[in-house]
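During the reporting period the student researcher (J.K.) took over the structure-prediction task from the postdoctoral fellow and processed the backlog of single-chain submissions. One of the processed entries is reproduced below for the supervisory committee.
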Amino acid sequence: MLGNLLMLVEGKSMTDLAIITSHPIQYYAPWFRYLNQSSGLKIKVFYLWDFGVKQQQDLEFKAGIQWDIPLLDGYEYVFVPNISKKPTTKRLWGLNNPALKESVLASGAKSVLMMNYNYISSYRFLLQWSQQKTPLLFRGDSHILQVPQGIKPFLKRQWISRVYQQFDACLYVGQSNRRYFQYHGVSAENLFFSPHAVDNDRFTQSATQAHDDSRHWKHVLGIPPHHQVILFTGKLIEKKRPQDLLAVFARSQFKNVSLLFVGSGPLETLLRERAKGIKHVYFAPFQNQSEMPRTYAIASVVVLPSYGSAETWGLTINEAMCMGKPVIVSDHVGCAADLVRDNGWVFSAGQQDDLADCLTQALDAPTVLAKKGQHSRQLIEKHSYQQTTKGLLQALKYCL
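J.K. obtained the following structure tokens:
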């Protein structure tokens, strides 16, 4: 088997890889397509839920979601029957797929990559798979902001550490995620860098048209054409702290600057109420994937002010950087350590004065802002599906 994998890495043969993940995700599906077409791997993806390919209610967006880009093209896949009465990724029993092990065995896969573990299907699979000789890998993006104290965090750490012991290798998406794995006992030799990435080509190739479209969209929204635009895009939920950005904008009194919120969610009503009487605050509804290049093109700077450990990465920053946009993120955003250098600013999460300083620096120097946008495009080239795949192949070689 080692000889076969060495031949794979040299491009002379290929092996099978089963990928187990919760549901089709707009960021992962293009990577699966890339893997199938460019890596030499013959892959098959095992989905535990069909969210995203059929219109279903997203509780955080408060809207019916069905992505408008191909999520199932270019690779082999199967939807493993989910018997959960209330399918969701928000609770342990939301993904319950008793046939998962037999489905993977029937594929004849020589290696398995799991993208989630905190569901009953995943735990069942780990228990049932322990007798197999097939290498088992895990790729995750969790991070830890500070070491928690007390018996409950101690027991949780022991449990998660036991879970990670079941894997032959773990793929980490960035430095914060690497520290999380090490905190839970994964040794350095079992860790391989497989960065979070989006479909860079889709954004960069549409940039010219997107900027043309954004000028018309700016007019439709009523934003003055000469205004710089601060953009927040995503779910309007507590962890992303859009209310912090609104509060800073309200008291900073920027000249010739507009604030645009793109998205929906539980905080939308609150934000609209607070925005009454504040000049140049605009709202746009949820934008599907095909509209996202235009969404970023309208921005002068993209801001992600999230607070807490739930913002494990922030792939909206990858997308913004593909469009050549400078970024401002809080230090609780998982990608801050990897993606934000001379292309933007990092501020202390929850500290509105710190966020205000960053915005002032950005908006007071348009030439600096433009240079930072150029740096964004250069930096994001290293966070591509090619690099993500390179880490996966290194991990497979190590396991075999």
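The committee noted the following: The two ends are 7 Å apart (CA to CA).
J.K. will present the remaining backlog at the next meeting.
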